[in-house]
Specification:
Blueprint (H helix, E strand, L loop, with lengths): L1 H16 L6 E8 L6 E11 L2 E8 L2 E10 L2 E8 L4 E8 L5 E7 L6 E7 L4
Antiparallel strand pairs: 1-2, 1-8, 2-3, 3-4, 4-5, 5-6, 6-7, 7-8
């Protein structure tokens, strides 16, 4: 069991070490769970030690989250002020885009988002 934990730990650290740098600003397009509406906005991702601080600005709403990158997968737990929390999981593309799905806590359907890096990032 100890050797399995060592192998998993080494794989995780090597995946993080070789991962793309995702810090920066992104334009986003999304759709709410169940297709109940589309939206656009911006996202900022900042490195914060081993994690990332994520801030969404969609219209007048701001959401904040904490993200973890493992290889080409970026997972974020988020909270909108005064609302329930949720989770989002993105695949990092070779072109720097992030595409993924999200759901609020207790949700039964998935929303989708596509993040496109702003120029120069």
């Amino acid at each position: 069991m100890k050797s399995l934990i060592t192998v998993v730990t080494l794989l995780a650290f090597s995946a993080v070490a070789s991962a793309q740098d995702i810090a920066g600003r992104y334009s986003l397009e999304g759709a709410n769970p169940g297709g109940t509406g589309r939206y656009t906005g911006e996202v900022e991702v900042r490195k914060n030690g081993d994690t990332f601080q994520v801030v969404w600005e969609i219209g007048r709403q701001t959401q904040q989250g904490t993200g973890i990158q493992l290889g080409e997968v970026f997972s974020v737990i988020y909270q909108q002020q005064g609302s329930a929390s949720g989770i989002a999981v993105y695949e990092i593309g070779v072109d720097g885009t992030l595409s993924g799905v999200w759901a609020p806590f207790g949700g039964m359907a998935l929303g989708i988002e596509l993040w496109t890096p702003d120029g120069g990032i």
